[in-house]
Design a protein that fits this description.
Keywords: Oxidoreductase
Distance between the termini: 14 Å
Largest sheet: 7 strands, mixed
Pfam families: ADH_N_2, ADH_zinc_N
Number of helices: 9
CATH superfamily of the largest domain: Medium-chain alcohol dehydrogenases, catalytic domain
Protein name: NADP-dependent oxidoreductase
CATH architecture of the largest domain: Alpha-Beta Complex
Shape: globular
Number of strands: 15
Structural class: alpha/beta
Radius of gyration: 20 Å
CATH class of the largest domain: Alpha Beta
Strand content: 25-35%
InterPro entries: ADH-like_C, ADH_N_2, ER, GroES-like_sf, MDR_fam, NAD(P)-bd_dom_sf
Number of domains: 2
CATH topology of the largest domain: Quinone Oxidoreductase, Chain A, domain 1
Order of helices and strands: EEEHEEEEHEHEHEHEHEHEHEHE
Bound molecules: NADPH dihydro-nicotinamide-adenine-dinucleotide phosphate
């Protein structure tokens, strides 16, 4: 039974030497109330980078020498818990282990309901979809006809945000890091326009051309210079949804002072950060909406699937490097 542990805290961009594989010889016989799980899909997520540092945050840091934990879909191999039976599939926060014992707390059953594939419970009908839906609707408060800009647009959250924006009648502009991603956004995900931030010389004026009526809502996944360029284009009473700041997660020195605050002030803009769990009370409604849109083919999603449990650390490294389109997931075998 294999376990992936944090060997040392990464400095800057994580490397394979920050992780280690250990053979876990703990007893895999469930006691009364417990289940034995076999890992099927592992979610790799940008926020895990934060947990690898020991800086104070909204979740405790990973301990050096201990397993990494993330969203996992697993199969119940043996059950001594009346809530689960052998052959059930569950999703929840679990350790990066090929097999593990759980008491079932915090796990949701995901037995191929509504023909939704198991991996989607780590993406569009999991944390990713909830982040997109809750951030856009609860902070963005979109009104038909408004203009939405999404950064990190070709990633897991971004591909869903843009589509929800279209369903709600917005003009949607995406920012992503390659020509292939930009093409995918307009051809597969209904984005009205998309901009490659790596090749565009003047991002602020490219956004101005793509958003002739200005930007009413900005769904920010990346922070840094890209966000600065968007904020120069915001409208009065615009809403800025600060979901993530992946452009600075590997920084070892603080960012320079932002110069965008005057634009927030003069436009009476609202800028609000959030953690998806803030909106737990609307999760049932949100999942219902996302599943219905999927069924009606109003919503689609893409995944980058990496095969092999042993490739999980590399998949995480590649995610931070933009090698994914849509949700990055490891299939363990
Ligand atoms: P993604 O699938 O979007 O993967 C990360 C993407 O970030 C990469 O594909 C890459 O795409 C882009 N990226 C990497 N480095 C940079 C950079 N320097 N500048 C701009 N873009 C960069 O991940 P998720 O959809 O899972 O997460 C997106 C964001 O949402 C993250 O910031 C994450 O922390 C946040 N998040 C927040 C949650 C919350 O509760 N607030 C919950 C879930 C996610 P590219 O090729 O375009 O550069």
């Amino acid at each position: 039974n294999q376990t992936i542990i944090l060997k040392q805290r990464p400095i800057g961009a994580p490397t394979l030497s920050d992780f280690d594989f250990v053979n876990d010889d703990s007893d895999l016989t469930p006691k009364e109330g417990e289940i034995l799980l076999e890992t099927i899909y592992i979610s790799v997520d940008p926020y895990l980078r934060g947990r690898m540092s020991d800086a104070k945050s909204y979740v405790a840091p990973f301990e050096v020498g201990q397993p990494i934990t993330s969203g996992i879909v697993a199969k119940v191999l043996v059950s001594k818990n009346t809530n689960f039976k052998e052959g059930d599939y569950v999703s929840g926060l679990l350790d990066w282990k090929t097999k593990q014992i759980s008491n079932g707390k915090g796990l949701n059953k995901v037995n191929n309901q509504n023909n939704i594939p198991l991996s989607a419970y780590l993406g569009v009908v999991g944390m990713t979809g909830l982040t997109a839906y809750c951030g856009l609707t609860q902070i963005g408060k979109p009104k038909e006809g408004e203009t939405l800009v999404v950064s990190g647009a070709a990633g897991a959250v971004g591909t869903i945000v843009g589509q929800i924006g279209k369903i709600l009648g917005l003009r949607v502009i995406g920012i992503a890091g390659s020509d292939e991603k930009v093409e995918m956004l307009t051809s597969e995900f209904g984005y009205d326009e998309a901009i490659n931030y790596k090749t565009t010389k003047n991002l602020s004026s490219a956004i101005a051309s793509a958003a002739p009526n200005g930007v009413d809502i900005y769904f920010d996944n990346v922070g840094g210079d890209i966000s600065e360029a968007v904020l120069y284009n915001i409208n009065q009473f615009s809403r800025i949804i600060v979901c993530g700041a992946i452009s600075v997660y590997n920084n070892t020195t603080p960012q320079k002072n932002a110069t965008v605050q005057p634009f927030i002030v003069k436009n009476s803009a609202l800028m609000q950060g959030f953690i998806v769990s803030n909106y737990a009370s609307i999760f049932p409604e949100a999942i219902q909406k996302l599943a219905t849109w999927l069924e009606q083919n109003k919503l689609t999603y893409t995944e980058t699937i990496v095969e092999g449990f042993e490739n999980t650390p590399q998949a995480f490294i590649d995610l931070l490097d933009g090698k994914n389109k849509g949700k990055m997931i490891v299939k363990t075998y």
